[in-house]
Amino acid sequence: MARGPDSDAQRLDDAARAGWLYYVAGNTQDQIARKLGLSRQSAQRLVSLALERGLIKFRLDHPIARCMELARSLTDRHGLAHCEVSPSDPASRTATLGIAQLAAEEMERWLRRPDPCVIGIGTGRTMRAVADRLPQMECPQHKLVSLVGTAKLDGSTSFYDVIIRASDTVRAPHYPLPLPVFARSPAERDALLALASVRNVLELAAKAEAAFVGIGPLGDDAPLLLDGFIDASEHAALRRAGAVGEVTGWAFDASGTLIEGLTNDRVASVRPVPGAGRRTICVAMGESRLPALRAALRGKLVNGLVTDERTAEMLLGD
After folding, report:
1. Domain 5-52 adopts which CATH fold?
2. For 267-308, what is each residue's pLDDT tens digit?
3. What's the CA gap between 65 and 69, in Å, rounded?
4. What percent of the chain is modeled with pLDDT above 90?
5. From CA 35, how far away is CA 38, in angstroms rounded?
6. Highest CATH level, class, for 65-316
7. What is the maximum alpha-carbon separation in the chain?
8. Rounded to an integer, what distance in angstroms lies between the CA atom of residue 111 and that of residue 295?
9. What span, in angstroms and rounded, lies between the C-alpha atoms of 260 and 247?
10. Per-position DSSP letters for the chain, written without gaps between them
11. What is the pTM of this model?
């Protein structure tokens, strides 16, 4: 017999209670079983469910001297307004859990401000991981605004939409950008940007006091290519023009300068502005993103960085 929604909600309540007893109150699973009137196996399953569903979130409160030293060096070298470095997982070169948690904590600090503010949010795999680590909050005084759409030319959308997920978690009004990442032509892009509803979102994005973005490499593993936003010929043209990375769909070269023409003539997202007054925090790690990260920092496309220890060391090794 299928479980009803009430049954599922009760199971999550039980999982949250078991998770609290285990991770916060320090009970053993035998103690939890006795307190909740369950078998030890049921208590164990509830504790596992609490972790699996993200009801329990871990924070590392002990400052790691090496990470703090790397963050300070990156700040000094690039004049950053914000920089945090997470420990690297020796067994993985791709796990984003550490940087996602640090970025979520920084976003939470903005969201806990009593005075209203506008926060811009990018999209992609890493930003989705950040949204997944936000705590449940009530933030009706703030506004979350998309910096980039998620639709492809065929009308399908990315798996990694972020703003709705973040808004559901923190209960803040959200303003998605109802556009494809790339229009079919510059004329179509201009027509889309002229829509009143779109202009409202873009004007709001221009007022953002903070923005959180990922960064995409334009090598063989370019997310824009792998996820179907551009085709192989467009990707090759960007590479020939010297593009090394993209932020909110805007391609840039090794100096951090936006590429002239090509897909940048059709991108329908918020244009990155070097040296913008707002805090623009890039959340990224990994060797494949190094050329894009170096360029974005060099061109002042971002003035904040959340990365991991290994990536920080490579950035400082230039």
Report:
1. Arc Repressor Mutant, subunit A (1.10.10)
2. 999 999 887 778 999 999 999 999 999 999 999 999 999 999
3. 6
4. 67
5. 8
6. alpha beta
7. 68
8. 29
9. 15
10. -PPPHHHHHHHHHHHHHHHIIIIIS---HHHHHHHHT--HHHHHHHHHHHHHTTSS-----S--HHHHHHHHHHHHHHT-SEEEEEPP-TT-SS--HHHHHHHHHHHHHHHT-SS--EEEE--SHHHHHHHHTPPP---TT-EEEESS--B-TTS-B-TT--HHHHHHHHT--EE---SBSB-SSHHHHHHHHTSHHHHHHHHHHHT-SEEEE--EE-STT-HHHHTTSS-HHHHHHHHHTTEEEEETTEEEETTSPBPSSGGGGTB-SPPP-TT-SSEEEEE--SGGGHHHHHHHHHTTS-SEEEEEHHHHHHHHT-
11. 0.80
Name the nearest CA neighbour of 283 among 111, 140, 132: 132
The Cα-based distances of 121 to 89, 222, 250, 311 in angstroms read 26, 20, 15, 23
Q: Which of 183, 170, 247 is nearest to 215 (CA)?
A: 247
Confidence of residue 2 (pLDDT cuts 50, 70, 90): very low
What is the Cα–Cα distance from 279 to 199, expressed in whole angstroms? Answer: 22
d(CA 305, CA 11): 39
Torsion over CA: 206, 212, 218, 222 (sign): negative
What type of residue is 294? R
* Separation between Cα atoms, residue 179 and residue 220, nearest integer Å: 26
Beta-sheet strand order (sheet of 243-247): 216-217, 243-247, 250-253
CB 75 within 8 A of CB 84: no
| Domain boundaries, given as residue ranges, for the chain | 5-52, 65-316
Q: What is the mean pLDDT of residues 72-92?
A: 88
Structure-block tokens of residue 150? 């998620």
Residues 21 and 36: their CA atoms lie apart, in Å, by 10
What phi, psi does 214 have (nearest 5°)? -95, 180
R_g of the chain, CA atoms, integer Å: 21
Give the total residue count for the chain.
Answer: 318
pLDDT, one tens digit per residue, over 149-160 is: 877 777 777 666
